[in-house]
Design a protein that fits this description.
It contains nine helices and five strands; from the N terminus they run H-H-E-H-H-E-H-E-H-H-E-H-E-H. It has about 280 residues and is an alpha/beta fold. It has one domain: Rossmann fold. Strand 4, helix 8 and strand 5 form a beta-alpha-beta unit. The longest helix is centred in the C-terminal third of the chain and has 22 residues. Bound molecules: thiamine diphosphate (TPP) and magnesium ion. Magnesium ion (MG) binds next to loops.
């Protein structure tokens, strides 16, 4: 099997290059969600670049759409479009804009206005049930995003309709745009909250590929309930001076910061290869 831990560091390097080149992007949330996307696109989801018209493909919605750089880098690496396209990110006229849009091969839903992904994912999962279709639906939300009321309408409907073909993930990095989630809108008792809406709650280490693997398998095996994976992550994960710092939510690295970040990610990628060989 491919070394996905090393792959996640390679993807982080690509994200760093993209954000540095474009002078725009949400690097903190990209780095926290990176392993989740790698686990989904390399191990768990039944999707392929040539098969996006297949009605039985699994569906993915990046509800925390501001982390699109991470999604673009994963999709490019999986061959959904040429890697060179990433060089046009955020340039005038490019379709690779700062939030997901479905002009890009592999992207199912335009997102970026927080709070909508879960409800749309619920609709897709209900459609699969009505059609007796085998596909699964996945969505990733930010923890700050949970302050949106529409999330809880989706949560309620998913429990009501017992959507066991739906897996939602919370990127629980404990930060949002302007500070900690606890300062902005308290996030305690997430387990009890989702439980009470009829969900199967799974806790996971969200920057650990092996633990994510376990969590996605548990979600697939659960019958009669939708699953929520509360993935404990670190915002900025992988670059020590970006980790757990709200200012890296939407900050562009300086030349010096870029060089330091690149060196750290390269070294971590090398170590990940070594540990696995
Ligand atoms: C409806 C809506 N309100 C506000 C914003 C602005 N905004 C963009 S990112 C963000 C913080 C999101 O925090 P979180 O969901 O925790 O994401 P992460 O920490 O993973 O980056 C906000 C408030 C938005 N995109 N949509
Ligand atoms: Mg967050």
């Amino acid at each position: 099997m491919e070394n996905l831990k090393a792959k996640a560091f390679e993807i982080r390097e690509n994200i760093l290059d993209m954000v540095y080149r474009a002078k725009a992007g949400h690097i903190g949330g990209d780095f926290s969600v990176c392993d989740i996307l790698v686990s989904l696109y390399y191990s768990h989801m039944n999707v392929s670049p040539q098969d996006m018209d297949n009605p039985n493909r699994d569906r993915f919605i990046l509800s925390k759409g501001h982390s699109v750089e991470a999604l673009y880098c994963v999709l490019a690496d999986r061959g959904f479009f040429p890697k060179e396209d990433l060089e046009t990110f955020s340039a005038f006229g490019s379709k690779y804009i700062g939030h997901p849009n479905n002009k890009v091969n592999g992207i199912e839903m335009n997102s970026g206005s927080l709070g909508h992904g879960l409800s749309v994912a619920v609709g897709m999962a209900i459609a699969a049930k009505m059609d007796n279709a085998p596909y699964r639906v996945y969505t990733v939300m930010g923890d700050g995003e949970l302050a949106e009321g529409s999330v809880w309408e989706g949560a309620m409907a998913a429990g009501h309709y017992k959507l066991d073909n739906l897996t939602a993930v919370i990127d629980r990095n404990r930060l949002q745009i302007s500070g900690t989630t606890e300062e902005v809108m308290t996030q305690d008792s997430q387990e009890e909250r989702w439980n009470s809406f009829g969900w199967n709650v799974i806790k996971a280490k969200g920057n650990d590929i092996n633990d994510l693997d376990r969590a996605f398998n548990e979600a697939k095996a659960c019958k009669g309930k939708p699953s929520i994976i509360i993935a404990e992550t670190v915002k900025g994960c992988g670059v020590s001076f970006m980790e757990n710092s709200a200012k890296w939510h939407h900050k562009v690295p300086s030349d010096e910061e870029y060089a330091m970040a690149k060196a750290e990610l390269k070294e971590k990628r090398r170590l990940a290869y070594e540990q696995n060989s």
